[in-house]
Amino acid sequence: MSEQLTVWCNTTLPPDAIEQLRDGLAPHRLLLSQKQTYNLGVSGGDPALEQAEVAFGQPNPQQVMKLGKLRWVHLTTAGFTRYDRDDLRQAMRQRHAIMTNSSTVYAEPCAQHAVAFMMALARCLPDAMENQRTDRRWIAKDLRARNQLLCDQTALIVGFGAIGRRIAELLAPYRMNLIAVRRKPRGDEPVRTVAESQIEDFLPTADHVIDVLPDSNSTNGFFNVDRLKLFKSSAHFYNIGRGSTVDQDVLAAMLQSGCLAAAYLDVMTPEPLPPDHPLWTTPRCYITPHTAGGHREEFKSLVAHFLDNFHRFIHREPMLDQII
Known about the structure:
Elements: E1 6-11, H1 15-25, E2 29-37, E3 54-57, H2 61-66, E4 72-75, H3 86-94, E5 98-100, H4 103-122, H5 125-133, H6 140-146, E6 154-158, H7 162-171, E7 177-182, E8 192-195, H8 199-202, E9 208-211, H9 225-228, E10 236-239, H10 248-257, E11 262-265, E12 285-287, H11 298-314
Parallel strand pairs: 1-2, 1-3, 3-4, 4-5, 6-7, 6-9, 7-8, 9-10, 10-11, 11-12
Helix pairs in contact: 1-11, 4-7
């Protein structure tokens, strides 16, 4: 592909990442939108997008469908709920356009975040830190008795895309019993994998249930009252997928009553979570404000991933993280 392309970008990037992007695209043209948006933001239409063959960021889905000149959209997120529409897929396929996302970029930080909390809960680190912040009692006997080893415990990874796979890789050295759950197992998964329709058989056996589900019509309320009540009272629940996949009221009630040992939530509904929301003060509910995918080099990693795909695009090579 020898023609000069125009690449439109509406993601708010720091100056060093913009320079990285501009240098990596040369001699192609970079068009920075005047309507910049945060990575998780929702963008409106932008007339400048009409000039571009490539979009990098979060373009408006309605506009994406209408622009026949637009040949490739690369999303700066792993999630793509707003774009997961039959009409958009049909419109892009009709003009042989493609869409990719940034799952590869977020697999490592999200997986490390989830495993960090799993280890922290197993070793009672939140309790030790709370004791230091408040009473400062020497509670060694109590903590030593409650500390756990992950070895031989069962972790159920619900949703087995890039993030779920990386979680499994990070947990492998701990000699855990790892079970992945996905809609349709392919047979090439590196750990035992069962179909989503079988999850009720495995929830009662899990010491750790890790929710990595995306937001979609089929996952909305996936962890409902019937499934949550199958958990062991000693189980830990982690959500780094989407808040919409969990009945948060039931989850909070289970924590209040002692029917669930602990929950770690990086994603919630709504976001931002209001300061007076009961989840903040629910016992043994630990919250981080949608930070699992973040790290100091996040934007540089996003740009590097896009530039890798850009090289593949102009040389007509297989694309990374293609979703359409």
